[in-house]
Amino acid sequence: MAPEEPASTPSVPAPAPDGPSSALATPPTLLDLSTYLLSRTGKAARSRLAERLARRGLRLWDMAVLAALADFGPHAQRDLVRRLGVDASDMAKVADQLALAGYVERARDTVDRRRLSVTVTEAGRALLAELRAEALAVQEEVLAPLTGAERGVLHELLARIHAELPGTP
Length: 169
Prior knowledge:
Elements: H1 28-31, H2 34-54, H3 60-72, E1 75-76, H4 77-84, H5 88-100, E2 104-108, E3 116-120, H6 122-142, H7 148-164
Antiparallel strand pairs: 1-3, 2-3
Helix pairs in contact: 2-6, 3-6, 4-5
């Protein structure tokens, strides 16, 4: 005869395969961290945009360079490195590829021949408009659970946080 379970031991049902104890569930300790949620959401959005850009043979840095040039005007290549926080050798590759495709023009500075000035072309501006539309489509997908008002509040809060980050101009 098998011994009986003590009456005080509760019977715990097995977790449902897709319930909170599932192997794929995010630990609640992480879900309580806003920084974790920001990171995961940002990673998902970045991945989606990177996929869309890759279909065009482009990367996120390509869009960043075009945006910086369109928004702030011509830059010395080394100033783009500082503005965007990209490695100088990576910037050289991005600028080379964008110039080869006709999206930017690079010219030697007449005063300092070591300095390369980078300028966005009309083709680059047109491409940037298309890439911005792709980015907005991804933003729409990611923020779909929020109302328009909630999106506005989220944007304001993120902009405020971004403005206070170290190294943000």
